[in-house]
Design a protein that fits this description.
Rossmann fold, homotetramer, 2 domains, 8 strands, alpha/beta
């Protein structure tokens, strides 16, 4: 539940709104490079495509790369993407995703933002060493000027743009209620439910499902229930040809 | 040029970012009702769908309604849409698009925003008369509380949400440069070009085209040119079967 | 690998092309009801939306239902969907998904197709009992005429429409090469690899990954590799803030 | 009416279904090059994107090129597109869109199809001169083998693939009914309506609108009507701020 809704939809939308409202740029016609195609990356890629951006994905895991390719995104190395992108969004949770080697290939005026985890996805120290000067050009937008005149804009100091930008409000409430809902039923389970040994436990499936049911009801969505015949069929393999 | 880029992409994206950043709501899973399917309405509908909203369109012009229907949007009357929507965006340039009759049918917590023209698309006087109380619940969000407890939220006093919301920055620069570009070449034409009688004139086609060419070059986009054989073919009807 | 590519893209596209080529109907403006939101259902829903259909999803599992809702699809019970759909595609792998009770609510001229598993998703016996007459109206399309005059069209006898329709060619080659690739490396593993006890084993992760790498190379897609510093970072939790 | 529905949706969907059913290829992950961004080209581009292809557009008219760019498609010359495409669809109505110069740059196994007008969009004579041999590899698919071993596949002899492919059924009925509807009301107008001089006349706006109204009713779509106050407002400029 958390990964699907929080990361795909919550982070995806909030990242793009924050970039839009910090820079006053439009995504239509921009090439948006999304580094990483996990839950966050998928959300950012899909929502950026939905704003009429041309989306390029970089990945290190071949199955995720293949998924992105089969979705119709262009998939390539960051070295190649660096030459094509207008906006770069890192979502990997790893470090050194955008390095000085990549910055050297970028166009004047590109925007770098991080929606991954910590402020190490973009190599800010390296960027600082490359730059002739740096200044804040808008609230939350720092421009690094290269010796050749190119300007590289970094949002929110390379921190999570959806949380650290000047207009950021954190995740939408629709996302937080699901996260908090999971936490609430887990606390109830610890108090009233099975005995758990100290340690980290997976959220029991029926609790995750319970939160989904409550959320559907809150959204006014009604769904079908399995009939007895269907339950039986699912547990057998004898009908149909 | 202006209508296509300014209204479809500029207004579309800016409207949604402003609603997102004013309300901190996510569009994923929301039913967004777009009133009017002109250039602005198309932009809002398409971008909302691209944020994973379920989009419902209302229109009075049958061909536009049919276009929206063929795009896969649900098309219905505002009376019906009122019962289904979570977020309502008016884009018609007309008045009384959302009236008290519609508000009576709306769910608790809906959001009303205007991206059309003046502040008469949503009947605020009527809404005020219906309401038991009103208060600002967030910066730029006014809540009208109905006698039955339902809360109707109006953004930016029913004025253009992409210009009048507290976080609004007006149109993105990519859109404004095209609008200003058209104005600049038109001024040049008035000074250097044909003699024009006083009055309103259409932008000459070659000027519109010139701005498109400059914009493409600025975006680094190269396109083909017609060959002589192709020009000749376009003016004849003799080749091929 | 198999589930993602075979079911989402392969079944999704093949199902829609087969329905299009069997019926000569266009999806634009149609309401397409997709029963089940597993891998096949997702593929059908996404590709139908991509053909400008208005997509309605039915599901029995609340988390999948919520996912579909958050994607922007309308989610409801089959009883409600029956009144709205033009084309119904079952993808559940279960039985009795479209029953006579649903058929009673359907419009004249609807199309029923199965992309799930066996020919029990649509209750053909029940439909036959309801019908006053039945006849083949196009190759692969059987019309059941109800006593009230409504015509219910069933494709490919309710068998997998992407395999059993008259124009069906089975899965696209791009999908089959991945399926066969997995089988090939698994056979190699049985011959050359670890000793396996008789029984059903999961495909080892590194084999699945190997096929993805081969496929990416065949598609001409190059991706980044983790650096040593990145590998180390992934196994630690100390950098960044 | 005709251009919007027939060309965008009718040709768009039919072209892709025919390519899919003639070649048994999937569009997911393919790079589809669409030559021309008029009504047909828009339809093909949009539907191909909706099948998860990566779409590249070529155009000679700068405003259309800019529109395609702002929609998020990559726009470039055919010479550049030739190196990237897997499937090429010409929709220009002009000649020599895919020439031998382009074929020289194409990958082994590409597919060429025409959805434009006549069989002169792809230079088949030139292709024949280049080729070492040619043979029909599937029904409706001719393979031209280049001296360097590359295989270039041409569908339906370069004729309109949605009409001339072996599985083609012409336009979907939903599209034809609108085209025929326009023709029917125009004949009625000639008989019962104004006196027309011999010659070509534009379809009167109210007839076009009438067909749209009939079609909406047939589709079960209800829309709002302008109130008197709204009609008056549209003709004035005095309300609102």
């Amino acid at each position: 539940m958390k990964r699907l809704f929080d990361n795909v939809h919550g982070t995806g939308e909030a990242t793009l709104s924050n970039i839009a409202m910090t820079t006053n740029l439009s995504f239509a016609g921009k090439t948006v490079v999304v580094a990483g195609y996990g839950y966050c990356g998928r959300g950012v890629a899909k929502k950026a495509e939905g704003q009429n951006a041309d989306v390029v994905v970089t990945e290190v895991e071949p199955r995720r790369a293949l998924e992105a390719h089969m979705e119709g995104y262009e998939v390539c190395t960051m070295a190649e993407a660096a030459e094509r992108g207008d906006v770069f969004v890192t979502t990997t949770g790893n470090r050194d995703i955008v390095t000085t080697e990549h910055v050297e290939r970028m166009d004047d005026g590109v925007v770098l933002a991080n929606a991954g985890h910590f402020n190490v996805e973009i190599d800010l120290d390296g960027l600082n060493d490359l730059a002739e000067s740096r200044r804040e050009v808008r609230d939350g937008v720092e421009e690094f000027r290269m010796p050749d005149g190119r300007r590289i804009n970094v949002l929110a100091d390379g921190r999570l743009v959806n949380l650290a930008s000047p207009v950021a409000m954190g995740h939408p409430v629709e996302v937080m209620d699901q996260s908090f809902g999971i936490q609430a039923v887990c606390v109830r389970e610890l108090v009233d439910g099975d005995d758990y040994d100290p340690g980290v436990h997976e959220v029991p499936d029926e609790l995750d499902r319970e939160v989904a049911e409550i959320k559907l009801a809150a959204e006014g969505v009604e769904i079908d229930e399995l009939t007895d015949a269907q339950r039986e069929y699912m547990n057998s393999w004898q009908h149909g040809t």
